[in-house]
Amino acid sequence: DAKTTQPPSMDCAEGRAANLPCNHSTISGNEYVYWYRQIHSQGPQYIIHGLKNNETNEMASLIITEDRKSSTLILPHATLRDTAVYYCIVRPNFGNEKLTFGTGTRLTIIP
Amino acid sequence: SAVISQKPSRDICQRGTSLTIQCQVDSQVTMMFWYRQQPGQSLTLIATANQGSEATYESGFVIDKFPISRPNLTFSTLTVSNMSPEDSSIYLCSSGPPSSSYNEQFFGPGTRLTVL
Q1: Residue A22 CA, distance from chain mean position
Q2: By the 8 A CB rule, do A4 and A58 touch?
Q3: Where does the pLDDT of residue B2 fall: very low under 50, low under 70, confident under 90, or very high at 90 and above?
Q4: Mean pLDDT, to the nearest integer, of B17-27?
């Protein structure tokens, strides 16, 4: 079973920051928070991951609470191409560990 | 990163037949994974394929229905056997990281299967 809880859907205006929350209250000490997204008719795409510090890359920022029980993915300037289903996944930081997908958040960017 | 291709991209099959899906990775990878995504649903892991050993199946999936081959470090196949309309799904292949520089998995574009 997925160990994360996400809102089923969200809307965001184009050009604004999209903030996607995720609850993972049962996360273990050795588990990282990973985010993937799936654009319609494509395979999932890795976005970012982190353990306890905030992380930023060219796609997004990841904010993890101090108690690590929740996190927020931030897309700083959303575009129409960011419309997708976003999945928050917790797992050990070994690349060969399987991914357990929850139901994700369907993000729609509004023109 | 790893680039993954799948064949076929889509197919329409008759019930009772079998379809083999091919997955090719452009780098050598230790682990490959097969997922199923039923219409409107999230991804569900079918099995993990490690080169040189039997695939490891998740609960609810059996080798007789979904035989998997992993002949080398860049290739795997998934067969959907004795198909029924309930097998209509997108089947996705993914790979573990191609080197220690990566921690993420990479996904193919999927194979859209319709069973009539």
Answers
A1: 7
A2: no
A3: confident
A4: 97
Kindly state the average pLDDT of the residues B94-108. Answer: 83
Mind telling me how many Å the CA of A14 is from chain B's nearest CA? 25
- Alpha-carbon Rg for chain A in angstroms: 13
Closest to A67 measured CA to CA, from A19, A24, A36, A4: A24
Q: What is the pLDDT of residues A98-107, one digit of tens each?
A: 889 999 999 9
pLDDT greater than 60 at residue B106: yes
Chain A positions in Cβ-Cβ contact with residue B108 (cut-off 8 Å): 43
User: B73 in contact with A at a CB cutoff of 8 Å?
Assistant: no
Q: HSE (CB half, 13 Å, CA atoms) of B29?
A: 34
* CA gap B94, B6 in Å, rounded: 10
**Other C-beta atoms lying within 10 Å of the C-beta of residue A80:** 10
